[in-house]
Design a protein that fits this description.
Layout: H1 8-16, H2 22-26, H3 37-53, H4 55-58, H5 68-73, H6 77-84, E1 89-94, H7 101-106, E2 110-116, H8 120-133, E3 138-141, H9 145-150, E4 158-161, E5 164-165, E6 179-180, H10 183-190, E7 196-201, H11 207-213, E8 217-225, E9 228-237, E10 245-251, E11 256-262, E12 271-272, E13 278-282, H12 284-289, H13 292-299, E14 302-303, E15 311-313, E16 321-331, H14 334-340, E17 347-350, H15 357-364, E18 372-378, E19 384-391
Parallel strand pairs: 1-2, 1-4, 2-3, 4-7, 8-10, 12-14, 17-18
Antiparallel strand pairs: 5-6, 7-9, 8-9, 10-11, 13-15, 13-16, 14-15, 16-19, 18-19
């Protein structure tokens, strides 16, 4: 960790140039020749990345940032805050501490936490930053977490793991066994040290693949931020045998949309109907969950088709996703398309439809944007239709 960048003139320079183009700054002469110019530029770039994602770090003085990539890969503050609503206790150990955003918030819910990070420089950066941030109940271990666990007799209330994909695993189907640490292989050892584990994975992990590799899963949390899935969390408890609950959260500026259901529950039968007055499109967290029949049953709304994952109802309800009023339903044929949509401006979405958005736009000369929303889909009678809508929420 290079502390030379902590001098007040350099820190002022970093703050003043946050958000300025790095390629433009790189052409300037280094105003601090005693310090590596690349190091200063990296701090400016990483701090700029942190402005929206990590506002607490951005607004705190004398923060040292690791590489821009580390900032890009870390949890956002909003998802970290949400995770604190899921677990609490006396002690927690984070086996893959990274830049420490999750641990900063876990420290508010636990008496003591341990931050393990094999990269000694990153560990030192986090230790420095936590002093600036006023975190006093965190211990730091710049070592392989397996060694840290092996050399201690302590039992932890919770263990947190964010495994990273190995470089040689690129191109393969994403599996937890292809990550470091190898959680499926290490579970017996981990359960000697704790009874409760929270595992964070990338959103592209298939839920069924995760379940095939893990055991004792009690809850699966799917976290989206502004309708983009950011994290999957597998919550496992030693020897747990019972139903698995999938809990979704879509964190928006003014609210958080939540929905949950029990996996493989027998009682959730969907209903089907032709398009009614309103159209409902689930948020991305629900789409990732696969709980499409459960949405129909829980909100008492009808599916358009088994594979369309769009819903309709005659009534307007509060719904975790986008809501539209259907102005017109047309068949997908030459005459109707020419009459209604040729050379029009509209937002085009396809669901369970044989053609792509790009081809539809090209074929019918539909310009992007505007207040019209067109869903190209299939109804319960297997007819190809277009729903012409206005957005409500």
């Amino acid at each position: 960790m290079n502390t030379s960048i902590l001098s007040k003139p350099i820190q002022d320079f970093i703050t003043q140039n946050s958000g300025v183009s790095i390629s433009k700054l790189a052409l300037q002469k280094n105003p601090f020749p005693e310090v590596d110019w690349i190091l200063i530029l990296n701090q400016i770039e990483a701090k700029s990345k942190a402005k929206d994602k990590l506002p607490t770090w951005f607004s705190t003085e004398n923060i040292i940032y690791p590489s821009k990539i580390s900032v890009e890969q870390t949890s956002s503050e909003k998802t970290a805050v949400y995770k604190t609503s899921l677990i609490s206790g006396a002690t927690l150990i984070d086996l893959t501490g990274g830049f420490g955003v999750d641990d900063y918030y876990f420290a508010k819910n636990f008496n003591t936490i341990a931050h393990c990070e094999i990269n000694a420089d990153l560990s030192a950066i986090v230790q420095h930053n936590f002093k600036q941030l006023g975190v006093k109940n965190c211990s730091f271990y710049a070592a392989d977490s397996t060694i840290v666990l092996s050399e201690s007799d302590q039992k932890w209330d919770w263990m947190y793991i964010d495994p990273s994909r190995r470089n040689d695993a690129k191109g393969k189907v994403f599996m937890l066994k292809d990550c470091l640490p190898n959680v499926p292989e290490s579970l017996p050892f981990y359960f000697e040290k704790t009874n409760s584990i929270l595992i964070k994975t990338a959103p592209l992990l298939d839920i069924s693949a995760g379940l095939s590799e893990l055991k004792f899963v009690k809850n699966i949390h799917i976290i989206a931020l502004e309708n983009e899935v950011k994290e999957l969390l597998f919550e496992i408890h030693n020897h747990y045998i019972g139903p698995i609950t999938i809990k979704t959260a879509n964190i928006l500026k003014d609210k958080t949309e939540t929905f949950e259901f029990v996996l493989d529950h027998d009682g959730d039968f969907p209903t089907y109907h032709l398009p009614q007055k309103y159209l409902y499109e689930p948020n991305s967290a629900i789409m990732k969950s696969g709980g499409f029949d459960e949405v129909s049953a829980a909100f008492k709304i009808n599916k358009l088709h088994k594979h369309s994952h769009l819903y309709t109802a005659a009534e307007l309800i509060d719904f975790p996703g986008r809501v539209f009023e259907i102005e017109k339903t047309i068949s997908y044929n030459k005459n109707d398309m020419k009459t209604e949509l040729l050379n029009q401006q509209a937002n085009v979405t396809t669901r369970n439809f044989p053609d792509t958005v790009e081809n539809i736009r090209k074929k019918w000369k539909i310009k992007n944007g505007g207040n019209l929303y067109c869903f190209f889909t299939t109804d319960k009678n297997d007819n190809k239709i277009v729903l012409i809508c206005r957005k409500i929420t």
